[in-house]
Amino acid sequence: MREFIFDCVDTTRFELRILEGETYQEFLKIATDEEMLYYIGIPSNEVAEEKKKAQYGFRTYNKSYLMFLIIDRETSEILGYCGYHTWYLEHDRAEIGYGLYSDNWKGKGVMTEVLNTVLHYGFTEMNLRRVEAFISPDNVASLSTVKKFGFIKEGQLRSHYVKGDNVEDSVVYSLLVNEYNSMNSNK
C-alpha cells in the first residue's frame, strides 16, 4: 500500500486527519479500495459514491471544503468526521457538519472534544468570523451539542434537506468569532 501524507491536529483522545478540498479530490482519483478504507474509513461498497464526488470537485473560486477525520489514537479506528463542508471563502463563514460511523461511540463525549478543536481551528487558522449549523429539529443530540458551544438559534428553514424519501426542516444556528473568543477567554 502506498503512503499518503495528511496533516493532522490532535485532541486528548483523538487524531484529526485533515482533508482539504484539493488534496482529498486528488486522493479520491488515485486511491485503491484498500487505501480508501485505511486512510478515510470508506468501505469498498461506498467507494464508487465517494469517488463520484471528486468528479465535481470540492472547491470553486468562492467555496471550499475542509474536513477532519476522527481517529481513535489507541486503535487507529476511524470513528467519524467533523469539519466545514461548505466554506464560503469571500465571506469568512462556513457550515459545519459532523457524524460518527458507529453508535458505539455516541454519548461518550467524542463530538464535544472534537468540535472544540475544530471550532478553534476554524476561527484561528481559517480566519472564520461565522460558523453555521443546520440541524434537523428532531436531532436532539446535535442540538444539545451546538448549544454547549454557545451557538445561537436563528430560525428554521422549511423543507431544507432531503434525507432518504423524507423532506426535513433545518434549525439554523450560528456562532460568531467574538462570541467564541468571549466564551473561551473565561476558561
TrEMBL record:
Claim: Iron is one of the keywords in the record: no
GO MF entries: protein N-terminal-serine acetyltransferase activity; protein-N-terminal-alanine acetyltransferase activity
PROSITE patterns, per the entry: GNAT
Organism encoding this protein: Myroides marinus
Protein known as: Alanine acetyltransferase
One family name in Pfam for this protein: Acetyltransf_3
Occurrences of domain N-acetyltransferase (ranges): 14-178
Gene Ontology cellular component annotations, sorted alphabetically: cytoplasm
UniProt KW keywords: Transferase
Gene3D superfamilies: 3.40.630.30
